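User: structure tokens for this one?
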Amino acid sequence: MVRVSNRTFHTGTIKKTITIKAAKEKVWKKISDIAGLPKWVIDVKKTVYLSRTKKGVGTIRLITFADKSQIEEHVVAWKDKEYFTYIATEGLPLRAYVATISIKIKSKNNIIVTWQSYLNSKKMPEKEFLEFLAFMGSFYEASLENLKEQLEK
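Assistant:
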């Protein structure tokens, strides 16, 4: 008997955007604090540097979540006061995860923050991957809402 597996690789993207009423410098300072994730990203317990570099390309961080899971991320692109891109190298059920957080001025003291990513799964059923994508989308949304709430105080 031949068994056909429904476990294959899947690719997806996530893009979430929010407008925050705050100065561009204030928004950038908060999101570009690479180890400052517990201040605004939901369920993050601790973030530590694994690199000597603390800002820009080459910065490496280890994120520990409330459930004790950990993700290692490396900053691979950086344009000051505009965006940074990072990749996850450990801790996700993925072969590839690349994400960018960017800011753009909408109008004076109205900043658009965008968090987008590309994901490619390890072998898993499509349903499992789609659930993971939905989870990540909700995670981005809740974290961006938290960021907005803190910066608009």
